[in-house]
Amino acid sequence: MRKVLFALACWATVGLVGARAAVDYKYVTDLSSYGAGLKAGDQVTASVYLQETLSGGSASFINADNGLFGAGVKINRTAGDATFFIIPAATSDFGVDTVITPNLNRRDPTGSFPGTPSGFGSSPTIVDPTPSTATTGGLIVNADITSSGTTKGPLIKAAENGGNKILIGTFNVIVGTQNSTFQVTNYGSTKNTLTQAQHDLDFGTQATNGYNGASAPAGGFFSFTVVGAAIPEPSSMALCGLIATGLGYTGFRRRKTTTEQAAVQA
Asked: What is the Cα–Cα distance from 104 to 106, expressed in whole angstroms?
């Protein structure tokens, strides 16, 4: 009986370890807060990544599938009044107004992060740069990121957990007068973020494959804040008004005294 119980305990322990062995995907930005100390109307630049988080001794799913074929990301403002800076079609390579600029930088795969997917190919395809509004930005890109060969690609960071952190693009946010919150999500429910082997990294919880897709990341979607410019309190504004009035009156008295003195001397 003891042997049976011991075997069951070992099996349960192994099962727990196996359950912890997972890979999680979510879209994140380089910081969780931007804009502190800036004034309304200023712009801040942020980078958006596909982050692969490994746990329980799991191996990179992207590396195992020889890289990332494509990715789709969306950013929505959920609170506040900060807005996206929309790149006009006249200055955009896409021919339409857009919010997110895809990562087109190239680097040698033997550079700062050897062994990770080498990055975009020489001619990444922009599938869709919409939606593109003051409050919502989106991008679907055929990244064609590979983990082998000598093709140069964009900067790609090795995540702290041993997974990958792939730079998808950058965007600018215009600081408002309120603290604003933006949520970063997958572009759609399926088939926008794919490995080279065509595994769908968007789709929910993939228990059989051992990973959570970007549409249902562990801990929920990533959000970031843009700090609003401080607005003077009514009491401060009133004080400023009194000071301005006082200065105006002082100037008036000074001019009046000077005029009177000149009249007496005449």
From this structure: 6
